[in-house]
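Why do we bother with a discrete structure alphabet at all? Because it lets us treat a fold like text: something you can write down, compare, and reason about line by line. To make this less abstract, here is a complete entry for Glyoxalase-like domain-containing protein. Read it the way you would read a sentence in a foreign language you are learning: slowly, and without expecting to understand everything at once.
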Amino acid sequence: MGAIHEIVFDCDQPAVLAEFWADLLDGYAVRQPDMTSAALSLALGLDPAEPTTIMVDGPGPSLCFQNVEGQRPENNRVHFDIGVTNRAAEVDRLSLSGASVERVLPTYTIMRDPEGNQFVLVDSKAEAERVAA
């Protein structure tokens, strides 16, 4: 059996997205670069001062944001549904961090992070009631 090791985002600006998602998810923080990551960057001929991969760690799987330039599909085939207790407040807070609202529905809001990756804010109470039914 396998287990999720990490969730990887291909992106243009790893630092921006890492900070955004660390702020969005409870208990997550950007991992500080260590000597191993700097050595790997040097070995690949990259500038260690501008890491191409940034990790975000928390209580669940780690998130990996890696620099991959070029076009990606407009709609994600996989996205996060994130339970929140005050959806309107989270929408406002995340909008100030660079997210955009795509669609608002009665129990959830479809949003995009600063690089256009889709995610959904779900009312925690509505989700709990749905599961209990």
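What the structure line is telling us, in plain words: The chain has two domains: 1-72, 74-133. The beta strands are 6-11, 29-30, 53-57, 62-67, 80-84, 100-104, 108-112, 118-123.
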